[in-house]
Amino acid sequence: MKPVVIVIGGTDSSGGAGLSRDIATLTELGCEARPLVTAVTAQTDLAVHAVAAISPDHVAQQLSSALATGPVSAIKTGMLHSRETVLAVAEVLADFATIPLVIDPVLASSSGTPLLDLDGIAAIKTHLLPLCTLVTPNLPEARMLTGNEHPELQAKALLKLGAAAVLVKGGHGDGEMSIDRLFQSDLPAAEFAAPRLNTSLRGTGCMLASAIAANLGLGKSRHEACSLAKEFVSHKLRQAAI
Fold first, then answer.
1. What is the pLDDT of residues 103-145, one digit of tens each?
2. pTM, whole model, 2 decimals?
3. Pairing of strands 74-77, 101-103
């Protein structure tokens, strides 16, 4: 039986990110996806033109129904859109603490359009981080969540808020290598590095978090899940660069 991963996020009419990218990643890694829609976007590779939110109550009903359908191996959240939706998701997930939860804190689109306001960010910090197995901010997201500039300080702040582990992604950094850093309170920090390629591929954050969730669902440790997911995304980037 394939591991089942619930993915919670927005649709992307261009197909480049969001639930489309989640489902494709999970399918390729041998998992079954149960997608829950928080918002429907109208966008291209260059810009977000419109966002239509799904009501928080309906998101909660989707999540409860997905969980009731059968065993779930992991859960991944992406675009949550509003404080109310964050709270609705957290309320349901509070009763399912044994299922690995990966939070991809989607705060803005690749083109820079805000996708979660300050109240929503505060709700993630207060209500979702204490439930998560891993949170995967990129460098701008880590700064917005913590107010800190250094990855180690960012991670310490997020661990203090209740996250079990933090993967600070280095794709927005400088240098020849893109280095993601995994911080866990009871273990030394670990680094996952790949050459920084002169190419662009939307949805890599969605892809990475979904790949981590897939590997956690397959029984891998956090360290191994992050390592395998980094290599998966790096392979996709290398293909895009050809």
1. 999 998 877 788 999 999 999 999 999 999 999 999 999 999 9
2. 0.96
3. parallel
**Contacting residues for 31 by C-beta, under 8 A, at least 6 apart:** 2, 3, 4, 5, 73, 214, 217, 218
Model confidence pLDDT, tens digit, residues 160-203: 999 999 999 997 777 789 999 999 988 999 999 999 887 778 89
Round to whole Å and give the CA distance between 77 and 84: 15
